[in-house]
Amino acid sequence: MTKNKRKQGEGMLRLRKDGRWEGRIVVGYDEKGIPKTKNVTAKTKFACEEKLKVLKETLGKAVERLKPDMPYGNWLDFWYQNFCKPSLRETTKVGYENCIYQHIIPAVGQIPLNELTQNDLQQFYARLKKNGRLHRSESHGTATSNRMVRSCHALCRASLEKAITEQLITKNPSLGCKLPPKKAREMQVLTPNELGRFLARTKEEGYYEMFLLELSTGMRRGEILGLKWSDLNLTNGSLRIARQVVAAGSQTLVQAPKTKNSIRTIILPPYMIEILADMKKHKSCEWIFSSPIKDGEPRNPSAVYHRFKIILERSGCKSIRFHDLRHTFATMALENGMDVKTLSDMIGHVSAETTLNIYSHITDTMRLQAAVKIDREIGGVDEAIPESKNEPSQTVSSEFDGFVEPYKPKIRKSGTGCITMINEHLYEGRYSPKINGKRMAKNVYAKTREECEEKLAELIKTMKAEIAELKKTTLKG
Questions:
Q1: Smallest Cα–Cα separation from 232: which of 196, 266, 271, 201?
Q2: Which of 213, 151, 187, 165 has the alpha carbon at shortest distance from 31?
């Protein structure tokens, strides 16, 4: 008797040794490409077929969608949900989903998978670069960053490579696309004078212990916020870094550190041990830097970053990223004699080679200084020792030479509005007078505080004129 061969995507039926019928269907693949299946069982073949149909409908008939002429957006969604998403961190998911569902699918998602061309993708990248910004375009412009374009391309390329593996297409149309250059973020460090002003200001703001610990260890922002008192050993002065706090959308998540090397134990300097020991006497929460708003929770990374930018501005320091405090620590450590291997272990790099690549401008100077010292000792050459390319640094300490005048915020007069620094590139001015008992607010935006003050003054002048005209109209009526 000839068996009826089941069509692709209908699943598999078989009679088990125990007399029951089993239906099985592929629902996805793991990160290694191994199929993941679900099964149903029943006493009869007919009942098993019915159960298998219900299972396929429940799963959205994912297998049936895998066709060469399926819309590229459908394949991209299937690839992300089944091959990619299960192994991603929450923060990575946010970035991937933004690229896929906000940019790629709306632009090229309707094109059949087997008809997608290099030209389609190249035009998409060009449009994305020129007019791809979806939020705050009125203040930042419509262009997106090179990084966003390259991120979208990376997802397109990976999904299309998997489509080749699944024998849905024969070649990857993303190969050969011209991309904007990869531009590395400029590393900046605080000078000794800036460090003094910055740490003095953190005392006024109530963030002194956190930023002193950051500048003494070079931890990542999420790592320092993920510290618990149980990680601190006051007897030997060690601190265990075993978790990090990250912001995923509106949520605050606690998860494992970035890499295996990021899980590490560091030895704190004596002054830092004393400060933390004193802090512990007055703390009841398990988190070293607990949230001032939500009891029993760590601080929100976004809130800490916002306060960091305010402290920089109020202390008269240049605008830098939070991660640049890590660079500041590493620079000071190298300039004060710490070897690269020790520094690499302390800041949690995968290898010393990574540290060398990042801080090559410092280590090159150190090697040149060492060579000159050897010449002076052995060869008797009286050559000047080259200076570091950075401003001479100093180790961070809990005391400062000289007095740093605390920042005194400007008290704005009533009716002059307010100005808020949103980030290092954007200031917001707001004027919100009351009209007939209702508050009417309008905003202006600028790249500098001075420009924002000018725009705000013009806005206030215009709004006052409109209010005066409105009052005249009301009286006449």
A1: 266
A2: 165
Closest CA to 65 of 166, 154, 155: 166
> Which residues touch 370 (CB under 8 Å, ≥6 apart)?
none
Instruction: Give me the residues paired with residue 452 across strands.
Output: none
In whole angstroms, what is the distance from residue 402 CA to residue 399 CA?
Answer: 9
Distances (CA, A) of 326 to 105, 265, 323, 333: 37, 17, 5, 11
| Alpha-carbon distances, residue 16 vs 11, 23, 41, 43 (angstroms) | 16, 10, 9, 10
Burial class from Cβ neighbours inside 10 Å (0-12, 13-18, 19+) for residue 254 reads middle
pLDDT in tens, the chain (477 residues): 445 555 555 678 888 888 889 988 876 655 555 667 788 888 898 888 888 888 777 665 444 567 899 999 999 999 998 888 888 888 888 889 999 999 999 999 999 999 999 999 999 999 999 988 887 776 677 888 899 999 999 999 999 999 999 889 999 999 999 999 887 677 888 988 899 999 999 998 889 999 999 999 999 999 999 999 999 999 999 999 999 998 876 678 888 887 888 899 999 999 999 999 999 988 889 999 998 888 888 999 998 999 999 999 889 898 899 999 999 998 888 888 888 888 888 888 888 888 877 877 665 666 665 555 555 556 555 555 455 555 544 555 554 444 455 555 566 777 888 887 766 667 788 888 887 777 778 888 888 888 888 899 999 888 888 888 877 777 765
Q: Give CA–CA dist 237/270, Å, rounded.
A: 8
The CA distance from 348 to 345, in Å, is 5
Cβ–Cβ < 8 Å for 222, 244? yes
